[in-house]
Amino acid sequence: MNEEEIRKRTQETARKLFSQGAKIDPPYLMWKEFNRDLANDFSKFITGNLYSRTVLSLPERQMVACAMFAALRATKEFKLHVNAALNVGCDPRKIAEIIFQVAPYAGMPAVNDALEVYREVLQERGEWPIK
């Protein structure tokens, strides 16, 4: 795959994930303040190569990301990816279930942090309470 194809795939995947819902600046904007070339390389790898693979669908990848960020208590990244999960069609009830599934592995404080962020995202999107 040539550079132009990777760039297009990166933009298309990023649009699907991050173009609607809660307004959250992706980390890419911060990365490029420090090093534009490296930010582009990271973006192409993560969004253009990894997230655009087809073994897992975008919704499946986002559910994995949500579980990982909830367990890590990485609330900024969790907020970005839970919004992206909703953007690509993840069922809001399944996302809540994924958050609760984190409890035996990362503890209830991680679950509580993730639920607070998730509720905030849903409220910003006008999708709270979950139906």
Structural overview:
There is one protein chain. This protein has 131 residues and is mostly helical. The protein has a single domain, classed as AhpD-like (Up-down Bundle). Helix content is 75%, strand content 0%. The protein has eight helices and no strands. The longest helix is centred in the C-terminal third of the chain and has 17 residues. It is globular, with a radius of gyration of 15 Å.
Helical fraction equals over 70%
**Largest sheet at a glance?**
none
Spell out the helices and strands N to C. Answer: HHHHHHHH
SS elements, strand count: 0
* Unreliable stretches: none
CATH fold name, please? Answer: AhpD-like
* The number of domains: 1
Overall outline:
globular
Number of helices: 8
List keywords for this structure.
single chain; 131 residues; mainly alpha; AhpD-like; 75% helix; globular
In terms of topology, how is this protein built?
Elements: H1 3-18, H2 27-34, H3 36-50, H4 58-72, H5 75-87, H6 92-101, H7 103-106, H8 108-124
Sum this structure up briefly.
The protein has 131 residues and is an all-alpha fold. The protein has eight helices and no strands.
